[in-house]
Amino acid sequence: LAKTTQPISMDSYEGQEVNITCSHNNIATNDYITWYQQFPSQGPRFIIQGYKTKVTNEVASLFIPADRKSSTLSLPRVSLSDTAVYYCLFKRGNRDDKIIFGKGTRLHILP
Amino acid sequence: SAVISQKPSRDICQRGTSLTIQCQVDSQVTMMFWYRQQPGQSLTLIATANQGSEATYESGFVIDKFPISRPNLTFSTLTVSNMSPEDSSIYLCSVIQGAGGELFFGEGSRLTVL
Predict the structure, then answer these.
(1) Which residues of B touch A95 (CB under 8 A)?
(2) Residue of B nearest to A32 (CA)
């Protein structure tokens, strides 16, 4: 599976929009880009997934440029409760396949 | 979404002993995954538990240390054998479900080895 690179940590303030960028130069044609969120003492939970262009749900937006070598998770108007670790991952096509976690980005929201 | 229950939620164990963690899912799933998360670290995949066949282990993990059972499509166990303090971690069970192939996790089992 292709490797992802994302910032180790980020700080932001309540009410701001937060963008976390993930680099994945060797993404395969059938890889989907998936983001997970993990709060302390909990397992990760799915946020959003996309293949190309833009995907939006009630929690976040995911921007993927045409070359798919990077992706950006956008969290609108963050609150203190958005403090968590965010993981950029790959999902291999439509197969139920193993998922490997990278180091993630530790996002700290300040009041 | 899948509901996953793990037991025990936490335990304190003595060096050299073994502990079995149970994972129960509320629906049938083809593949179950066991991850380990050491303090302050990301998740590391230990193995994929397949029903009716042996588990598939990732590099650095062996069956003698982490034997896995998968007797049916809703249940799996992970045993941490001959524990040492380095095995102190959170162990997480997960499954893939849904049209988008989302990973769902149990609440984790926090092991402390003295």
Answers:
(1) 101
(2) B100
pLDDT in tens, chain B (114 residues): 789 999 999 999 999 999 999 999 999 998 899 999 999 999 999 999 988 888 999 999 999 999 999 999 999 999 999 999 999 999 999 998 877 788 999 999 999 999
CA–CA separation, B41 vs A42, rounded Å? Answer: 13
Q: Which residues of A touch B31 (CB under 8 A)?
A: 96, 98
User: pLDDT by residue (tens digit) across A50-72?
Assistant: 999 899 999 999 999 999 999 99
Domains of chain A: 9-110 (2.60.40.10)
CATH number for the domain formed by residue range(s) B4-113: 2.60.40.10
Cα distance between residue A26 and residue A78, in whole Å: 31
Nearest chain B CA: its distance from A34 CA (Å): 9
Work out the minimum CA distance from B14 to partner chain A, whole angstroms.
23
Outline where B5-91 has alpha helix (H).
none
The Cα A68–Cα A25 span in angstroms is: 8
